[in-house]
Design a protein that fits this description.
74 residues, mainly alpha, 4 helices, elongated
């Protein structure tokens, strides 16, 4: 099992959803979270039987983007 946290790598969208300035969104994503692209890359390296993300709110508006980011590499 491979478990990691994840955030959608879109500062403008994150800022809009969180009602925060885009600079805060960019800093938060770049310094404190794993983008979906990275999660897909790492999952592809590890090749687990089960991969999971945590610290990701179930937001139907972001779910498609999140899956697309992971599937870029996995």
């Amino acid at each position: 099992m491979f478990v990691t946290e994840m955030v959608v790598d879109n500062p403008a969208l994150w800022s809009l959803k969180q009602r925060a300035p885009i600079e805060v969104g960019s800093f938060t994503i770049d310094s404190a979270h794993s983008a979906g692209y990275g999660v897909g890359y790492l999952t592809n390296l590890v090749q687990p039987r089960l991969g999971m993300t945590t610290h990701f709110s179930l937001d139907m508006e972001l779910l498609g983007e999140a899956v697309a980011e992971v599937r870029t590499h996995y």
